[in-house]
Every structure is written in C-alpha cells, then in structure tokens.
Design goal:
Layout lengths: L8 E8 L2 H6 L1 H17 L2 E9 L11 H12 L4 E4 L2 H4 L3 H13 L3 E7 L2 E4 L3 H34 L11 E3 L6 E3 L1 H15 L4 H10 L12 H7 L2
Parallel strand pairs: 1-2, 1-3, 3-4
Antiparallel strand pairs: 4-5, 6-7
Helix pairs in contact: 5-6, 8-9
C-alpha cells in the first residue's frame, strides 16, 4: 500500500553549478530566500532543505548527492511537495523532467516551481501539469537553438582561420591574437612522424626517436604514444 502523504510536507531543493557559487553562497542564498517566501505563502511545512552545491545541471537528479536524498525522502513517503526556483535547477532536460515528474504524480508528489516566466506552477493541478509540459518543451527548444547557433559560429570562425578553443599542434597564434598560422618547427615534427609511421615504426619507437634528436612535445616532457597519434590525426 502506498504511504499516505501530506501535500503540505515539502522539500526545498537548491542547486548551483560551480564551487565558487557554492562557497560564496550568493546564488544559494537567493534561492533559499525565494523558496522560504513561497513556502510561507503556500503554508508548506519544510521536511528538509537540500542543497546540491557545485553540481552541474547536466548531471541527472538521481546521480546528484542531494538528488539521491530527495528521492529517498519521496520513496519514504514523508514528502508531498518538492519546491525549486526554476526548472533547470532540478532537471537536466525535457525528458528527465517529464519522466521524473510523471513518476512523482503517480506517487502523489507535486512539484512547485517558483519562477516560470514570472509565474509559479504547481503540478498537483491539471493546469499546472500542462504548463510544466509546455515549459519543459520550450526549455529544450532553447537549449537546442543555442547549441545550433554555437556550432554555426564556431564553424564560421574555423572557415576564417580564427582560433577556436585550444591551438592545435602544428599551429601558433598569429600576432593579432585571433587567427592561427602554421608553426614551422611543429609542422616539421609532424612531417617526420608521418614519414616514420608510414615506414612501419611504432608510436613508442617514434617517441624515442624524437627525444633522441632533442625534439620534445610542446609542453616539454616525454612523448607518449597517444600524443604522437593525436598530432597526425
């Protein structure tokens, strides 16, 4: 038999992504104040306040330390409501949100989100559930649009010979600080490695050969087989 739940018994869930935010407490403090104000307005009783500090939103709820505790409380039957400030504080993506909250619905647990386009929602109602479904879908759309724009921007920069991320082996940053150009010394090493590799020499032997000639990796040290393989890819 399912445990009887009190809809007024709530868990407040807070999350920040970086250690700096967690240490300084700025974002956590703001979330906590907002959740406490909402709790008072709705007459909820706090069973526990859970903080996932320095935890990326890309990590599924079930794999977060605080997320595991939240699930334990729900499974234990002592929680009737879960309260968070925003959708992305608690869920990874649209699928994660809808699948998890559907399970909560079946157990009689409502999700309260404070800031959803300036309004709050409560999934204990049919209208609240509908708005959550729509919000999760739009949030997923926004993430995908950002990913597409980022990919297009990076592709454009690459086509112009501009730097994207780290500087590949065999190149160096031009004096304008934007474009990358061939690094003659490293290009010569790449040429030698390819010739030795085509001659049947192993990656380990190539590394030893380069070191014997006084040719070291960009950051010094020893040539590793994977490093040699990577620069000729």
């Amino acid at each position: 038999m399912k445990p009887t739940r009190n809809p007024k018994s709530a868990v407040l869930y807070l999350r920040v992504s970086t250690i700096e935010q967690a240490t300084e407490g700025i974002s956590l403090e703001a979330q906590g104040q907002a959740l406490e104000a909402y709790r008072g307005m709705r007459g909820l009783t706090v069973v526990e306040t859970i903080r996932d500090a320095g935890i990326s939103g890309a990590i599924p709820l079930v794999e977060r330390p605080g997320g595991k505790r939240l699930i334990e409380l729900i499974q234990g039957g002592s929680v009737g409501s879960v309260v968070a400030t925003k959708l992305d504080r608690i869920f990874r993506d649209c699928a994660d949100c809808l699948v998890t909250t559907r399970g909560w619905d079946e157990q009689g647990v409502a999700l309260h989100l404070l800031d959803l386009g300036g309004a709050s929602i409560d999934t204990s109602t049919a209208m609240g559930r509908m708005f959550l479904t729509m919000a999760a879908g739009f949030a997923e759309l926004e993430r995908n649009l950002i990913r597409e724009r980022t990919t297009a921007a990076l592709r454009c920069k690459k086509s112009k010979g501009e730097r994207v991320g780290g500087i590949p082996y065999g190149f160096k940053l031009f004096h304008d600080g934007i474009h990358i150009v061939h690094n003659p010394d490293e290009q010569e090493i790449i040429k030698q490695v390819r010739e030795l590799r085509s001659g049947g020499m192993t990656l380990l032997a190539i590394g030893a050969h380069l070191e014997a000639k006084g040719l070291r990796p960009r950051k010094g040290g020893t040539w590793h087989p994977m490093s040699i393989k990577r620069i000729t890819a």
